C-alpha cells in the first residue's frame, strides 16, 4: 500500500563564492555562485488529507518565528505547482520543522520548497529525475534547485542552473546569526547603489576557490571565499563588520557574509578552533546566537515514510 505521508530532510547552504553581474533589463542580476550544503536542516513532512481540506501548512521548530503559514509560504507554492504539473490530489498537509534561520541568507524557504517537491515525488511515486525536480524548483526560487541537489555545486544564471562540482574534504563552519533578517531584494538594491557609475564585468567562477575544493585544502578555501553582496549587506547592517573582525581576531581560516546575509559564516580548522570562536562570538554582544555546522552534506532526501 502507498504511504500516507513522507518526511524529507533538507540542508541550509552557504555561498563560498557569490559574484554578481550588472543589473539586467529584466530587473535581475546574472550571478555565478558556488554553494555548499551544510548540516543545519529543515524537516518537511507532506501527507494526504481529507477531501476539501486544500493545502494546509503548520510550522514548528527553533526558527519558526516570522514564517508565513499561508499561501505565500514557499512550501505551499511548491505544493500548488506540483499539484498543477502532475495532477495530484489537491488536499495535502505540510508540516515544517525549522532549524534553518529565517531571512538569514541560508536558503531556508527554498529548502522547504525543495522538501515538498522531493516529498511529493516520493509520496505519489512520480519517479521524477533530480533534473526535472530542480527545473520545477527553479520556478519557485533561485536557490531551490541547489537545495534539491546538495553537496557542492556551481550555480549560474540566477543561481538556479546547477552543476555539481568536484570537491574533497569536510569543512567546519561557525555561523554567527543575527536576530533580524535582511531582505534579499534590499541587499541587491544597495549593491546597485554602491556600484553606480562603475562598469561591472560578467561573473565567472573563481579558479583559486575551485582548486582549493579539488584539493580539499581548508586553508586555501578560507582565503578564496568571496561575496560581492558583502559590501551591500555591511552597508545596510554595519554591525556585520564587527562580527567579521571577531573571526579575524580569533584566527578563522576565512569569514564571509552568507548570500545576502545577515548570517556570517566562518570556516575554522578543527573542533577546538570552532569552540574558541563560538565562545568569542557569543560573548562579543554583536550576534544573537552562534551555531556550528559541517559541510558538505546531501541535498533533500526522504528520511521517513508512514
Ligand atoms: P536566500 O538565502 O534564498 O536568499 P533567505 O535564507 O535569506 O533566502 P528565507 O529564510 O528563505 O531567506 O526567508 C525569506 C522570507 O521568505 C522570509 O522573511 C519569509 O517571509 C518568507 N518565506 C516564505 N516561505 C518561507 C519558509 N518556508 N521558510 C522561511 N521563510 C519563508
How are the secondary structure elements laid out?
Elements: E1 5-23, E2 29-48, E3 55-60, H1 74-86, E4 92-97, H2 108-123, H3 130-138, H4 144-149, E5 152-156, E6 161-164, E7 171-177, H5 184-195, H6 207-215, H7 218-224, E8 226-227, H8 230-236, H9 239-249, E9 254-257, E10 264-268, H10 271-284, E11 289-295, E12 301-305
Parallel strand pairs: 1-8, 3-4
Antiparallel strand pairs: 1-2, 1-12, 2-4, 2-5, 5-6, 7-10, 7-11, 9-10
Helix pairs in contact: 1-2, 2-3, 5-8, 6-7
Adenosine-5'-triphosphate binds at residues 67-68, 72-75, 96, 102-110, 112, 143, 181, 184, 259-260.
Small ligands present: adenosine-5'-triphosphate
For the record, the count of structural domains works out to 2
Detail the poorly predicted runs. none
Tell me the name of the CATH class of the largest domain. Alpha Beta
Mean pLDDT metric: 95
How many beta-strand elements? Answer: 12
Report the C-alpha radius of gyration, rounded.
19 Å
Oligomeric assembly: single chain
* Major beta-sheet overview: 8 strands, mixed
Approximately how much helix is present in the residues? 25-40%
Number of helices: 10
Family: Belongs to the GHMP kinase family. IspE subfamily.
Enzyme class: transferase
Protein name: 4-diphosphocytidyl-2-C-methyl-D-erythritol kinase
Pfam family, one: GHMP_kinases_N
Amino acid at each position: 500500500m502507498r504511504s500516507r505521508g513522507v518526511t524529507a530532510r533538507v540542508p541550509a547552504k552557504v555561498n563560498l563564492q557569490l559574484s554578481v553581474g550588472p543589473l539586467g533589463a529584466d530587473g535581475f542580476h546574472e550571478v555565478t555562485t558556488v554553494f555548499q550544503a551544510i548540516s543545519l536542516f529543515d524537516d518537511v513532512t507532506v501527507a494526504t488529507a481529507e477531501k476539501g481540506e486544500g493545502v494546509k501548512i503548520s510550522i514548528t521548530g527553533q526558527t519558526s518565528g516570522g514564517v508565513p503559514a499561508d499561501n505565500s509560504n514557499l512550501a505551499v507554492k511548491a505544493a500548488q505547482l506540483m499539484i498543477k504539473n502532475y495532477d495530484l490530489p489537491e488536499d495535502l498537509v505540510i508540516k515544517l520543522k525549522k532549524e534553518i534561520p529565517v531571512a538569514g541568507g541560508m536558503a531556508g524557504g527554498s529548502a522547504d520548497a525543495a522538501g515538498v517537491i522531493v516529498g511529493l515525488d516520493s509520496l505519489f511515486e512520480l519517479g521524477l529525475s533530480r533534473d526535472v525536480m530542480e527545473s520545477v524548483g527553479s520556478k519557485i526560487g533561485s536557490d531551490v534547485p541547489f537545495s534539491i541537489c546538495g553537496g557542492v555545486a556551481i550555480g549560474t544564471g540566477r543561481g538556479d542552473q546547477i552543476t555539481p562540482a568536484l570537491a574533497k574534504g569536510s569543512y567546519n563552519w561557525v555561523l554567527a546569526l543575527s536576530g533580524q533578517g535582511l531582505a534579499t531584494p534590499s541587499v541587491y538594491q544597495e549593491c546597485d547603489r554602491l556600484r553606480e557609475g562603475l562598469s561591472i564585468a560578467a561573473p565567472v567562477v573563481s579558479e583559486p576557490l575551485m582548486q582549493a575544493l579539488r584539493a580539499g585544502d581548508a586553508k586555501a578555501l578560507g582565503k578564496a571565499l568571496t561575496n560581492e553582496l558583502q559590501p551591500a549587506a555591511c552597508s545596510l547592517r554595519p554591525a556585520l563588520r564587527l562580527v567579521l573582525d571577531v573571526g579575524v581576531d580569533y584566527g578563522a581560516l576565512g569569514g564571509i557574509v552568507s548570500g545576502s546575509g545577515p548570517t556570517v559564516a566562518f570556516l575554522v580548522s578543527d573542533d577546538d578552533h570552532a569552540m574558541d570562536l563560538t565562545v568569542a562570538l557569543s560573548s562579543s554582544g554583536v550576534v544573537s546566537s552562534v551555531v556550528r555546522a559541517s559541510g558538505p552534506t546531501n541535498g533533500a532526501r526522504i528520511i521517513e515514510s508512514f
